[in-house]
Amino acid sequence: MDFLVKAAEVFMNLFQTGAKTFISWMTDIVPVVLLLLVAMNTLIQLIGQDKINALGRVSARNPILRYMILPFVGSFMLGNPMSLSLGRFLPEKYKPSYYAAGAYFCHTSNGLFPHINPGELFVWLGIAQGVEALGLSTADLAIRYMLVGLVMNFFAGWITDFTTTIVERQQGIKLKTKVDV
């Protein structure tokens, strides 16, 4: 009988923990993301939808702009996860690749720009503490991490372009390569 009671307690504890996590998201993450969405949409309205779509068209022409510059600017200006929403201005074909590059960049720039992804700052701080214990500079590490990240994130986006093409062929579909206005 004790086993059944213990199993029921563990089962209920699982759901109570899930509920606590959900409530913490509703009071921490969700309002921030909501306000970032409002800020981004306000900025888009101030700049003008046509200019933002033009940025998407220009960025779509060149993989370096698409997977290196746009994710960098988006991450720096908007942080994670809002930087990923810039992909909405790209043609459908390039959205998966932009997401791949942008998602990685939100991690590889934490050393220099902790505001981009504060939720994962503990990873950077743990590594930095080990580097400092060796008597080395964390600034060197942060710069190298970001530079290597820029290159590797570009390749993540570019390789995703190739896999998207394979999936298109496999599924018998063709994604648009032009921005619909």
SSE layout:
Layout: H1 2-27, H2 29-47, H3 49-60, H4 63-78, H5 95-108, H6 121-133, H7 138-171
Short description:
By secondary structure, this protein is mostly helical.
Provide mean pLDDT, rounded. 85
* End-to-end separation: 65 Å
What is the total tally of β strands? Answer: 0
**Into which percentage range does the β-strand content fall?**
under 5%
* Spans where pLDDT lies below 50 across 5 or more residues: none
Provide the helix percentage. Answer: over 70%
General shape: globular
Tally of individual helices: 7
Q: In the residues, how many domains can be counted?
A: 2
What series of H and E elements makes up the topology? Answer: HHHHHHH
Q: Biggest sheet, in brief?
A: none
Cα gyration radius (Å): 21 Å
In words, what does this structure look like?
With 181 residues, this protein is mostly helical. The protein has two domains: 1-47; 48-180, no CATH class. The protein is built from seven helices and no strands. Helix 2 (29-47) packs across helix 3 (49-60), helix 4 packs across helix 5 and helix 5 (95-108) packs antiparallel against helix 7. The protein is globular. The termini are far apart. The model has no long low-confidence stretch (mean pLDDT 85).
